[in-house]
């Protein structure tokens, strides 16, 4: 039997932040696999030549959203794809949070704004009783197009988001500045490790590209229960998932993101995580293909 050929789908940008990919590739090679990084939008790639495609650092998909979703469907028709195309499509639009909230998952309060019926942002904030908020496009990643606004000083923020499609408005949570986010990383449905992501001084964005830092952490039972309640809403167990939690003004955890497409899994924080992910990935190869 030939060695499994595995593509680790990435992007041509952000070359300095792909440590997860390197660790996963090495773990797969230790298991006798031929694993290599491939830019998802490289038109020269024959995806049928791989036994498995792992979507990892496709960190520009939000700029080519429709093309990315079409790509995922094509790859899934040609080989095994993880996470699957349907899960990727669902998770790529942040309105999935509305579905989770409807299912009883405690999420950050959100007002959804449709491009066809835009609202005046100051009036929206006044109606919700929010002095400060964050505005995001529903298709985005890495806080690239997120705006923090105050009532009366919100000029252009909502319009900018709506030009990218639908928008979402959430209250600004002070805990994000001083506590950051708690990320619970799951591999094949099992909690692997937990990290706390904190923003740089004077910022509120926790991503590394904005100067954020992360460290190993522990989750409370309440936080684990919330994360697993969110995952239980899915129709299938994802190969990998990152559940991002923040603390609301009452001190209760709430879901801010459920990341199923290209999350940093912070594999450096748990030496065994890359090995576990490689083992779980190999079980997703269609042996009958």
Largest sheet geometry:
5 strands, antiparallel
Q: What is the tally of beta strands?
A: 13
Helix content, binned percent: 25-40%
- The low-pLDDT segments are none
CATH superfamily of the largest domain: ATP-grasp fold, B domain
Biggest β-sheet: strands ordered side by side in the sheet:
11-10-9-12-13
Rounded to an integer, what's the Rg over CA atoms? 19 Å
CATH architecture heading of the largest domain: 2-Layer Sandwich
> Structural class, please?
alpha+beta
Q: Name the helix and strand elements from N-terminus to C-terminus, one letter apiece.
A: EHEEHEHHEHEEHEHEEEHEEH
Helix count, DSSP H or I runs of 4 or more residues? 9
Classified by CATH, the class of the largest domain is Alpha Beta
Strand % is 25-35%
CATH domain fold name of the largest domain: D-amino Acid Aminotransferase, Chain A, domain 1
Shape: globular
Total discrete domains: 3
Q: Determine the N-to-C terminus distance.
A: 14 Å
Mean pLDDT: 91
Please, could you describe this protein's structure?
The chain has 289 residues and is of the alpha+beta class. The protein has helices at 19-30, 65-78, 85-91, 96-102, 121-128, 157-162, 174-178, 221-232, 273-282, and strands at residues 5-10, 34-39, 52-57, 80-82, 111-113, 132-137, 147-150, 167-171, 181-187, 190-198, 213-217, 240-247, 253-259. The strands form three sheets. Strands 11-10-9-12-13 form a five-stranded antiparallel β-sheet. β9 (181-187) and β10 (190-198) form a beta hairpin. The protein starts with a strand and ends in a 7-residue tail after the last helix. The mean pLDDT is 91.
């Amino acid at each position: 039997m030939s060695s499994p050929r595995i593509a680790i789908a990435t992007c041509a940008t952000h070359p300095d932040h792909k440590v997860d990919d390197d660790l996963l590739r090495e773990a797969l090679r230790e298991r006798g696999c031929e694993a290599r990084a491939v830019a998802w939008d490289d038109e020269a790639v024959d995806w049928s030549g791989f036994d498995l495609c792992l979507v990892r650092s496709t960190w520009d998909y939000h700029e080519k959203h429709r093309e990315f979703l079409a790509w995922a469907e094509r790859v899934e028709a040609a080989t095994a794809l993880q996470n699957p195309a349907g899960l990727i499509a669902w998770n790529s639009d942040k309105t999935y949070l509305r579905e989770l909230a409807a299912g009883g998952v405690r999420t950050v309060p959100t007002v959804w704004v449709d491009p066809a019926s835009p609202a005046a942002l100051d009036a929206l904030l006044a109606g919700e009783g929010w002095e400060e908020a964050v505005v995001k496009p529903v298709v985005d990643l890495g806080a690239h197009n997120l705006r923090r606004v105050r009532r009366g000083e919100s000029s252009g923020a909502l319009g900018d988001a709506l030009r990218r499609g639908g928008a979402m408005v959430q209250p600004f949570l002070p805990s994000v500045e001083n506590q950051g986010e708690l990320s619970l990383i799951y591999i094949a449905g099992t909690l692997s490790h937990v990290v706390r992501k904190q923003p740089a001084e004077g910022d509120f964005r926790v991503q590394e590209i904005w100067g954020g830092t992360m460290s190993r952490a522990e989750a409370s039972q309440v936080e684990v229960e919330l994360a697993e309640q969110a995952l239980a809403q899915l129709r299938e167990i994802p190969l990998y998932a990152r559940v991002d939690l923040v603390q609301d003004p009452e001190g209760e955890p709430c879901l801010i993101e459920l990341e199923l497409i290209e999350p940093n899994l912070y594999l450096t924080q748990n030496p065994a995580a890359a090995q576990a992910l490689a083992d779980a990935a190999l079980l997703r190869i269609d042996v009958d293909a």
